[in-house]
Structure formats: structure tokens, C-alpha cells
Amino acid sequence: MDLSIAEATRAEFAHSTVYLNTATCAVLPRSAVAAVRGLAEAAAAGLPAGFGDFDRVNRVRAAFARLVGVDAGRVAIGSSVATHVGLVAASLPPGAEVLCAEGDFASVINPFLLRGDLKLRFAPLEALAEAVGPDTALVPVSAVQSADGRIADLAAVRAATAAHGARMLVDATQAAGWLPFDASPYDYTVTAGYKWLLGGRGASYLTVSQEAQQCLVPLHAGWVAAESMWDATYGPMPQLAADARRFDESPAFLAYHAAEPSLALLERIGIEAVHAHDTALAARYRAGLARLGHEPVPGEAAIVSVPGLADRGPALLAAGIATSARAGALRASFHFYNTEADVDRLLDALS
Asked: How far apart are CA 157 and CA 186, in angstroms?
């Protein structure tokens, strides 16, 4: 860590609202905006730089790998979590049992449901580990629930899947970037890049364990999935990439050009510092809610949801405070560009 949160906020962010909605979409840092602008302007001028930079994409791959504690060879890049999950869903044999958490994010459930020939079971998040059985083939689960910020007991679920020979897929979209997260124990992880990772839509990351790489079929493999992609632009592919790059999609360059400075910013601050800052703000908000007589969903995440207050969102936005409504609750989410003053503004508005 070589950059304080206060220094980073002053240098990189210029939003005019009290923005408490990172769980929906992040505020882009100035450096990310500049990278997108540079690529777009080069494309508009017809310059070679406007084609997009594969070297930059690979630097983003490496930065994400460092962030989640795996080798870059386990990381594939793509455009959306649902596409990554769909690839995993397609790998399962007919009749395989998939155990999901009740109320989890749709992109973690629908690709399995829409197969039509898989057996889906659902269990409460808190009882997911106990629900794993001898017939379970895969457990997909979000590390942090989008609707209300509940944090899954991933270690318990991993122990249960290992005991029964099942695989595990973790959606880290609402975790990576504020919650220290190690992707290495899991067969698959998926992470959208436009929330806590401070990027734009179009960047998404799939990690695949060495073992799982041998049984996951790269169904959407194009030329970028080849071992030597510039030798695979025409005709049948000579050879797939030896590692998880075989699962790459052709990159949305605007999103990946934005991702490089954004991930670098998180690395310079350090996830431990971000975690401490974000959860302290969430705790301040929870304490203030209690004083006002409101009861949020219990937890310690940077996401705080208050059932019954979803209808307050429009009035808050009119007052310059951005939140979101999810599952009948008012959801506020705190990132390192937020301050105690932001929390107090929200509490004042709710009072």
C-alpha cells in the first residue's frame, strides 16, 4: 500500500452526488475515464491505437489474479457473469444436481435452470453447507448476497462439497474489491468488473482451477482462445491455449482499458485498507439506523439493506443521495470514495 484512501479520493473521484450505490455500479476513477477517452478518440481518428490493446488486457488479467490470489493462468476474461456461468452450466451432464442458495442473484441460477435437464435444489444461504449431499454435482453461490449483503460461509460450503466430491462456483461480484477474497480453493469463480472493482460494464473475470480446466469445454472459443491467437484468425484452430485463456471471449476493449488503472488504484491502496474503511462506514450507518428505529438485515458487509424502506429511494435521489431498492429493501453500499459525512447525510435524510 502506497496511497491513502483520502489521497486516492481527492485525486481520482469527482462525483457530485452522495453516491452510496456501488453494489449497482461503481463511480469511475478519473484515470479510468481518461483511458476510455484515449481509446475512443484514437478509434475516432482512425489510429492503430484505437484497435484496443491485448497487452493491456493481459495486464488486467494479471492484476485481477493478484487481487484474488491465483496465478494468471487460471483467469479467463469475458463480458458478463451470466456468460461465464452459462459455460459452467453447459459442462454438466444431464440430470446433474445443482444446489443453489434461495434468493441468490439471477445470473448464478438461471443458466442452470434454463438447461432444462438438470436437477435444481434450493436451500437457505445459512444452511447451504448442510444441504450438500452425495448426489450434488455443483454448488453455485454468491460470496456476498446482492440483495442484502449477507456473507456466505464459503469455507463451510467448500468443506461440504469436497466431502461429497462436488464442485463449487463462487460469484465474487459483490465481494472482490472490498472484501479480501481468495479464489484459489474453488473450482470456478466469476466476478463482474463494474462494481467494487471500479470498472465499466463489459469486463468480467472467470477463474478455473487446474483440474476443472480439463473438463470445461470452451464452447465459445474464438481466435483469442488459441495458444497463438495471431496464427488462428482463419480456419480451424491449430491449438487451444494451454491455460484458462482458452475460455476467453474477445475483449470489450473500452471496459478493459478502464479496468487497468482501476485495478492499479485498488492495489495501491490495498484491499485490507478498503475493507476496514468500507465496513466502518457500514457500521456507522447501522448504528444510526438503530437510533432511528430501523432494523437492517444483520451483517458486517459494506452493503446494508433496510426492509420496508425501498420507497424512500426517489426522495433520497432528489436530495442528491444515490441508493437502490432491492427485494423490498433500501440498499446502501459503501466504498472507499465514501466518507462519514456521506453516511450522516443519508441518516439525516431518513430521519
From this structure: 10
- Long-range pairs for 181-187 at CB < 8 Å and ≥24 separation? 181/67, 181/68, 181/69, 181/143, 182/68, 182/69, 183/68, 183/69, 183/70, 183/74, 183/207, 184/68, 184/69, 184/70, 185/154, 185/158, 186/154, 186/158, 187/211, 187/212
pLDDT of residue 1: 58
CA-based nearest residue to 60, from 305, 298, 256: 256
φ, ψ of residue 202 to 5 degrees: the values are 115, -10
- What share of the chain in percent tops pLDDT 70? 100
Nearest to 248 by CA among 214, 224, 219: 224
Reduce the DSSP state of residue 205 to 3 states and report it: strand
Q: How many domains does the chain have?
A: 2
Does residue 38 fall inside a structural domain? no
Pairing mode of beta strands 75-78, 167-171? unpaired
Which pLDDT tens digit goes with each residue over 147-176?
999 999 999 999 999 999 999 999 999 999
Residue 158, domain member (yes or no): yes
189 vs 183: CA distance, rounded Å: 7
Asked if 300 and 228 sit in the same domain, the reply is: no
99-155 residue pLDDT tens: 999 999 999 999 999 999 999 999 999 999 999 999 999 999 999 999 999 999 999
* Model pLDDT for residues 211-257, shown as the tens digit of each residue: 999 999 999 999 999 999 999 999 999 999 999 999 999 999 999 99
Specify whether 182 is located in the same domain as 58: yes
What is the number of other CB atoms lying within 10 angstroms of the CB of residue 291?
Answer: 9
CB 289 within 8 A of CB 346: no
List the one residue out of 167, 110, 179 whose CA is nearest residue 143: 179
Q: Amino acid identity of 117?
A: D
